Amino acid sequence: MINAKKIEEIAKQVSDAIPSGLKNMAADFEDKTKTVLQRKLAQLDVVSREEFDVQTQVLLKTREKLAELELKFAEIEAKFTITK
Question: pTM, whole model, 2 decimals?
Answer without folding.
Answer: 0.47
